[in-house]
Specification:
Blueprint lengths: L22 E2 L6 E5 L7 E7 L2 E7 L6 E4 L13 E3 L2 E3 L6 E2 L5 E3 L14 E2 L1 E4 L2 E4 L23 E6 L2 E2 L3 H9 L8 H4 L2 E10 L3 E10 L6 H7 L15 E7 L2 E7 L5 E11 L7 E10 L6 H34 L9 H13 L1 E2 L6
Antiparallel strand pairs: 1-21, 2-12, 3-4, 4-5, 5-10, 6-7, 7-8, 8-9, 11-12, 13-20, 14-20, 15-16, 16-17, 17-18, 18-19, 19-20
Helix pairs in contact: 1-5
Organism: Gluconacetobacter takamatsuzukensis
GO molecular function, one term: oxidoreductase activity
Keywords: 2Fe-2S, Iron, Iron-sulfur, Metal-binding, Oxidoreductase
C-alpha cells in the first residue's frame, strides 16, 4: 500500500500555474451532449458545449447530424426549425441547411444565389448517447470514442443519469477521485472508511484504488449491492474483499469495483461536459452498469431502490461541489490546500491536458 506523506505532495498551484478553475476542457475529444431518447425522429434538439449553441437533427431516415444552432440569416436558432428530408429549415424565412452545414435552399432566391452556410460538427451516436466533436473537425476520425461501461452487455443492467451541476467540471473530477469524502455520505451509507491501496499515473491518466471498511453495524441494502456486504468487525481490520478503482483518463472518468475473485461487479463511466462559455456550469452524462446476480429477477426487484440510493448520493455530491464553486466565486480564486497526493496528481493532469481559459489568471 502506498503511504501518504507530505513529501509526496505535488503542488500544481506553484507560481506560473493557472488557476485550475480557469482551465477549459480540451475540445479535441468526443463529448456527449444529449441522450438518444431526447431526440425524436423528424425533430431537432437544442444543446451546447462550452457556450457553443448546437442543434441536433434527427431525420426520419439516416443518422443524426449536428449544426451550429444559428441560422446564417438572422441568427435565429435552427433548433426551432423543421426537419425536411436530410435538412433542417429555419423557422423564420425557411432557409434550409443540409448535413454539411451548407445552405441548400432559400425559398425566394434562385439556386445560384445561395449564401454561405453554418458550422457543422462531427457527430456520432453510441450507447444511448449523442456525441459531438467540438474541436478541430480534421482530428475527429483519429480520436477514439470512449468505452461506455457495459451498455448492451446482457450480464449487466445499466442506468443513465445526466444532471446539470452549477460548478466547474474540475470539481466533479476531484469529488469522485477522492474517496476520502465518504464522511459526506454517512446518512446514506452509514459509517464507512476508505482505505487507500495505491495509485498509477501516466501522461493522460491518474488512477487510485481503495477498499472500504465498515465502522458500524448498519449497511443499506443498495450500498451492499454496490460495495459488497461489509460488517463491523468490532475493532478488527476489515479484510479487502472488493477493490474500488477510480480513473480519470482525460477527459473522461471511470469507477469500477471488482470482488475478491477479480470479477467486475460495477462499472461507472461519466463525462462532465461544460455548458457555459466560462465552463463554470456542467452537465454530467453517466452510465452505471451493475452485474446481474445469480437470481435473474433480483436486480429488477432492487433496481428502483438502487436508483433512489444513487440519486441521493449524487445529490449530496452536487450540493457540496456547488458550494465549492460558490467559495471560489466569493474568494476570487482557488485557495484549496490539498494534501492528498492523488488529487494533486489529478489537478496537474487536468491543468496539463486542458486549455487556458479566456479568464485564466496566473
Amino acid at each position: 500500500m502506498d503511504q501518504i506523506t507530505l513529501t509526496e505532495h505535488e503542488d500544481d498551484t506553484r507560481p506560473g500555474t493557472p488557476d485550475l478553475r480557469t482551465v477549459d476542457c480540451d475540445p479535441d475529444f468526443w463529448y456527449p451532449v444529449a441522450w438518444s431518447h431526447e431526440l425524436k425522429a423528424g425533430k431537432t434538439l437544442a444543446t451546447r458545449y462550452a457556450g457553443q449553441p448546437i442543434a441536433l437533427v434527427r431525420p426520419t431516415e439516416g443518422a443524426v447530424f449536428a449544426l451550429e444552432d444559428r441560422c446564417a440569416h438572422r441568427q435565429v436558432p435552427l433548433s426551432k426549425g423543421t426537419v425536411k428530408g436530410q435538412s433542417v429549415q429555419c423557422c423564420y424565412h425557411g432557409w434550409a441547411y443540409g448535413r454539411s452545414g451548407r445552405c441548400i435552399d432559400v425559398p425566394y432566391l434562385g439556386k445560384g444565389k445561395l449564401p454561405n452556410g453554418v458550422r457543422t460538427y462531427p457527430c456520432r451516436e453510441e450507447g444511448g448517447l449523442i456525441f459531438v466533436f467540438p474541436g478541430d473537425p480534421a482530428l475527429a476520425d483519429s480520436v477514439p470514442m470512449p468505452r461506455l461501461a457495459h451498455v448492451g452487455d446482457p450480464e449487466y443492467r445499466t442506468r443513465q443519469f445526466g444532471p446539470r451541476v452549477a460548478c466547474h467540471y474540475t470539481f466533479m473530477h476531484e469529488n469522485l477521485m477522492d474517496m476520502n469524502h465518504q464522511f459526506l455520505h454517512r446518512r446514506q451509507m452509514g459509517q464507512i472508511r476508505a482505505r487507500f491501496l495505491g495509485q498509477d499515473r501516466g501522461e493522460n491518466f491518474v488512477e487510485a484504488r481503495y477498499s472500504f471498511a465498515r465502522t458500524d453495524t448498519h449497511q443499506p441494502l443498495a450500498e451492499a449491492l454496490i460495495f459488497g456486504r461489509h460488517r463491523d468487525l468490532k475493532g478488527k481490520e476489515q479484510p479487502v474483499e472488493e477493490v474500488v478503482t477510480v480513473r480519470t483518463e482525460y477527459p473522461y472518468q471511470r469507477l469500477w469495483i471488482v470482488d475478491k475473485d477479480g470479477d467486475l461487479m460495477m462499472d461507472l463511466w461519466v463525462a462532465y461536459v461544460p455548458q457555459s462559455a466560462d465552463q463554470r456550469t456542467s452537465r454530467a452524462f453517466g452510465l452505471l452498469s451493475v452485474r446481474r446476480p445469480k437470481i435473474p429477477f433480483l436486480i429488477d426487484l432492487i433496481w428502483p431502490a438502487l436508483a433512489v440510493f444513487t440519486n441521493r448520493i449524487f445529490e449530496e455530491d452536487r450540493e457540496v461541489v456547488e458550494l465549492e464553486q460558490l467559495a471560489w466565486d466569493a474568494q476570487g480564486g482557488d485557495r484549496n490546500r490539498e494534501v492528498f497526493p492523488v488529487v494533486n496528481h489529478l489537478r496537474a493532469l487536468l491543468t496539463r491536458c486542458g486549455r487556458p481559459g479566456r479568464n485564466a489568471r496566473t
